[in-house]
Amino acid sequence: MAEPAWEPASYPRKSRLSGILEKRGLNYQGFLERSFRDPETFWRWFFEDADLPWPVPFSRVLDLSRGKPWPRWFPEGKTNLAWWTVGRRASLHPDRIALIWEKENGEVVSLTYGELDEQVRRFAAGLVDLGLAPGDRVGIFLPLNLHAVVALLGVSAAGGIAVPLFSGFGVEAVRIRLEDSAARMLITQGQTSRRGKAIRLLDIAQKAVQDLPSLNHVIMFDPPPGGSGITPAEEVFAASPVETYPWFPGETPFMLIYTSGTTGRPKGTVHVHAGFPVKAAQDMIHLFDVQEGDVITWLTDLGWMMGPWLVLGGLMLGATVLLYDGAPDYPEPHRLFDVWLRHRAGLVGLSPTFVRAVRGRVEDWLGRQDLDGIRAIGSTGEPWTEEAWWWTFEHLGRKRAPILNYSGGTEISGGILGCVVVRPIAPLSFNTAVPGVEADVVDEAGNPVVDEVGYLVVRNV
Question: What separation in angstroms does the CA of 9 have from each of 14, 112, 391, 419, 424?
Fold first, then answer.
């Protein structure tokens, strides 16, 4: 096996995971084994460690009485992910910054938890006034910006099912997903900007919804003057905010998010109030050491799993989520790094493709910056090349910040393999199965293998 490039002694603060291990009197391997063998204890520990109480407590963690293919998670428990993410956090620290949104033109908009909670409550009430009923699907065709967060949480708060759509899609890709999900509403915006050029989402949306029998409303942020067949978002916000969030059984769906469709027709995966957000927050605590008040960010989109993951996991834990809506290397190749540093992001997520695109163009600029505030670098979605990994570790991480690889999938709302900051990390590697997921690599006969290519399996399902 490769020698470690990074050691836990380089980590700049006490991680949440190390505190959890001390509290439970376990080393990391013991904690990992407990997570595989005793889900009842493990998940109760998680909700306690994450400070995420249930409004209506569950009776047990996992009911397998119908067999492993048909588990029931957190039976009898009720919650609302909008309450977990903003409602409760607004009651605890209303003046803490929840979202920072920087546009490509440099404009910055911030919302506190109190302000975000108010917007979500109003938007949810306005959607209900428009006729949204529990279980109705709502397409969200927006970049990963403040509007997208309010839309996602507002739909969920009202009991609807959000259908996030990649903001780079064309007409046919948007239409296929709206038709497949039988969406009742579509939320979009007039236009966005990439490399200084306007991209009219309105034109794509209007063509995509033509003759869709299920669709009743197109709700638009920043609509153009005189637009027809459009409900301006301002009218939705005009509703009196819902006074309390309704409680839903934990397995109530809130999101239908599509896989890429690269090997066939796109497939919608259903996620529930006490599923996707819980997994996102759990991975953020155990793998990425997200703590209250941290500024966290990721280079992603709402239509990719990592967009909702970033928003829901970060807000669940009381962090500040930084959103950048623009080309990451425009107008200068270091633009994204500049955004991260100006807003003091501690956990930053990128892709090897982005690194390869800017490598050779930003070294001088990075060399003049104070990068001590970047404590960890996340990566997912594709494998590294050795050159890109070492470049990132040396030039962005300064051999001090670990690169935390993360791999899972849209279907499971988070990771199977990852890295923790309490173990050494070798180049290009994972250093753990994600707690709660007993992953292994086996050969054709099902025997575990090490330092060989094999099949990735999960044993505790």
Answer: 10, 34, 21, 15, 9
